[in-house]
């Protein structure tokens, strides 16, 4: 029985669900893992995650399709990216097949929380791993916990498809040769001051530029950028070693080329080019595709011709095609959809 939740009015928040998957790494190996009821974690006051932020995470969603199945989108890529994140922070890797199995188990165990088709909501899954044993000298932990919880969510930005306004941040998110290309909690800690300040100043998000030269567009705190050329025929998306390789963005590059016949450019994007683009959007699991209407750089406004009322026409096509694939209305490329029920 589906839970009695007002699905259509959900924001992007945490609602505790029934079960979570937990697996522990001790003496050099992972245990079998299990679904448990307890949503709380007890650990040492000196746990490595608490002292030195040794934690990495992922984000993916489960959807109810038009014909009533429950699926998730490319979980194998989340499994692979978690491996990359773990290696960078000297953590043991979680086997990729076990990751996908754990995703399936977590969704199955919380199936009543998967929002119905057409509600606008989805079930967000948060896999994560952290160093749990006491560590006081700076070194990696020896014991780890891997968990997945899930929570039903609505749109990441209030207003859903309404274009947002972002500003160029004065602080950097990621250093060259730093950790911007992995999904480590520390990258998000680093963005908290900037996001609070952006909200206080009336902006929805921050645009981070490359830390070395501050001339190139990187990403926001939680999504990659896509831009559409003036003639509407090209999708341009920033390439950099310090942005997170978004699964949504990589998927949209395929959708743009194979489904919509656009040319795709994955390259360095200079901030000065923004004025030449017709549309701008943020893409990510949480953000899906959120249109950006305006970028403000210290008082100077760059307004995209698509305007502040609606998603631009090409962004809309990308959005409709991507969500159509995720919700089973449009045939997916081989291997993109993992059917759970
Ligand atoms: N960039 C950052 C910093 C993110 O946190 C996310 C969210 O996962 C993304 C981009 C989008 O990545 P994905 O499409 O894999 O969710
Ligand atoms: C996601 O899109 O899954 C993320 O992790 C972004 C986060 C800022 C909510």
Bound molecules: pyridoxal-5'-phosphate, 2-OXO-4-methylpentanoic acid
For the secondary structure, the number of strands is 17
Order of helices and strands: EEEHEEEHHEEEHEEEHEEEEHE
**Low-pLDDT sequence parts:** none
Main sheet: strands, sense, barrel: 9 strands, antiparallel
Q: Figure out the total of helices.
A: 6
Measured distance between first and last alpha carbons: 14 Å
Judging from the principal axes of the Cα atoms, what is the shape?
globular
Radius of gyration, taken over Cα atoms and rounded to an integer in Å: 20 Å
Structural class: alpha+beta
Strand content: 25-35%
Helix content: 10-25%
The average pLDDT value, as a whole number, equals 97
Structure characterization notes:
This protein is of the alpha+beta class. Helix content is 22%, strand content 27%. The chain has six helices and 17 strands. The protein has helices spanning 48-52, 75-88, 96-109, 185-200, 247-259, 313-326, and strands at 20-26, 29-30, 34-36, 55-57, 60-64, 70-73, 122-131, 144-153, 164-168, 205-207, 224-229, 234-238, 263-267, 277-284, 288-297, 300-303, 337-339. The strands form two sheets. Strands 1, 2, 3, 4, 5, 6, 7, 8 and 17 form a nine-stranded antiparallel beta sheet that branches. Strands 9, 10, 11, 12, 13, 14, 15 and 16 form an eight-stranded mixed beta sheet that branches. A hairpin with a 3-residue loop joins β14 (277-284) and β15. α2 (75-88) packs across α3. The longest helix has 16 residues, at 185-200. The chain starts with 19 loop residues before the first strand and ends with a strand.
């Amino acid at each position: 029985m589906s839970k009695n939740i007002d699905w259509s009015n959900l924001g992007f928040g945490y609602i505790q669900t029934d079960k979570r998957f937990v697996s522990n790494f001790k003496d050099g190996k992972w245990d079998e893992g299990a679904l448990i009821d307890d949503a709380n974690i007890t650990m040492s006051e000196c746990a490595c995650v608490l002292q030195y932020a040794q934690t990495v995470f992922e984000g993916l969603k489960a959807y109810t399709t038009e014909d009533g199945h429950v699926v998730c989108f490319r979980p194998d890529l989340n499994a692979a990216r978690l491996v990359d994140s773990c290696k960078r922070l000297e953590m043991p890797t979680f086997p990729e097949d076990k990751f996908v199995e754990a995703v399936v188990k977590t969704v199955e165990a919380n199936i009543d929380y998967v929002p119905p088709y057409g509600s606008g909501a989805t079930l967000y899954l948060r896999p994560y791993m952290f160093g749990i044993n006491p560590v006081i000298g700076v070194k990696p932990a020896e014991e780890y916990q891997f968990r997945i919880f899930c929570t039903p969510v609505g749109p990441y930005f209030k207003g859903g498809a309404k274009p947002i306004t972002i500003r160029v941040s004065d602080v950097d998110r990621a250093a060259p040769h730093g950790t911007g290309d992995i999904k480590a909690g520390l990258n998000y800690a680093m963005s908290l001051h900037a996001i609070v300040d952006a909200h206080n100043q009336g902006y929805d998000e921050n645009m981070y530029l490359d830390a070395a030269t501050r001339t190139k567009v990187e990403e926001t705190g939680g999504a990659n950028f896509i831009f559409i050329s003036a003639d509407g025929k090209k999708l341009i998306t920033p390439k950099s070693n310090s942005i997170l390789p978004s699964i949504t963005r990589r998927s949209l590059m395929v959708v743009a080329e194979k489904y919509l016949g656009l040319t795709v450019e994955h390259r360095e994007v200079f901030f000065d080019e923004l004025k030449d683009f017709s549309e701008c959007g943020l893409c990510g699991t949480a953000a899906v595709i959120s249109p950006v209407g305006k970028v403000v750089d210290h008082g100077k406004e760059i307004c995209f011709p698509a305007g502040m009322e609606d998603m631009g026409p090409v962004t809309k096509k990308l959005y409709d095609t991507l969500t159509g694939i995720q919700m089973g209305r449009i045939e997916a490329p081989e291997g993109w959809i993992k059917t759970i029920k």
